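Deviation from plan, reported transparently: glycine complex.
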Amino acid sequence: MNKVSDVLIIGGGIIGLSLAIELKLRRVKVTVLSRNFQEAATHAAAGMLAPQAEKIPPSPMLDLCLQSRAIYPDWIRKLEEITGLETGYWPCGILAPVYDAGEQESRGAGENLIANQVWLNQLEIQQHLPGISSEVVGGWWYPDDGQVDNRALAHVLLMAAQQLGIEIVEGVAVTEFVRENQQIKYVKSLVGDWQAERYVLATGAWSQELLPIAVYPKKGQMLSVRSRSVHLAESLSSTQELNHVLFGDETYIVPRKDGRIVIGATSENVGFTPDNTAAGIQQLLSGATRLYPPLKNLPILEFWWGFRPATPDELPILGTSAYENLTLATGHYRNGILLAPITALLIADLLEKQIANSLLSHFHYTRFTEK
Ligand code: GLY
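Because the crystal trials were delayed, the predicted structure below was used instead.
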């Protein structure tokens, strides 16, 4: 039996690592068990920080997302200071163009008025972004949404965790919570057993492997192109350079500072079926090149896919569980990158100080079990 820490976090994606760092900074002894760091949804994401572009309606979820977006700059600064590395955090704003003028009203009416947003008409949006499709009739500009380079952030989190002396055990597939009454006694894995005072489930789309919990995979396929090329003909001209995320219907285009442009994403109920498909990539390319035709000539860099941790109501599952010493931090669906800092903060408060922020009650697992 490996007797470890005060807190054993199962899951080495962005949620598990962010929480581990928050706890360690509060002097809690913490260990992370990770099955496959590269497999986490963290790596597959586009890194958008987009509560407004994602059209999250006024709700505790929007409050949670806006709070997380608000603390992002300080959280990033802290991580970059610890490691001396960059995360590619970029509060670049998100432009949500529409093809149908009716969307001005439907989006505008549903938005939370505390959030900053501006409607651009056709002329304004064309002036704002030369090259955007002539089919676009206008769009919402969300100046406070933004992005982070999720892969860079994942690396920074891993480095920060290592520098802070957090024990991260990679390649450990936990197979079972061994329970006694309402307690977790220890966890079993293919390479031995692990015991701690308290446990956190942060295994995202794979959560059902350990608990009967309402989280299931929603596959997303993605690709990237290169905006700058040594061959001038293949580059975006300076007027076509993208400096904001474009968020269209079922298509988003995320320009990185290093010249890559990430294009996403499908949303498929196919379980854990791997691989990119011709239909998936066709959907992405036609959606993206319709929205922003200059993409047509850019060289493709990469295709990939990942599994979002979806829940029936598309909200995360946060807080206490049916077991006294097991806490849940999973099911972040489309917003795991955005919600990492607030999840770490609220769950650390719960574990360390037994303080349950009132927001947490809206994300309790019992919403699926009590009728
Ligand atoms: N957050 C964007 C997505 O899940 O595709």
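Residues 46, 48, 220, 264-265, 308, 334 surround glycine (CB under 6 Å). We consider this an acceptable substitute for the interim report.
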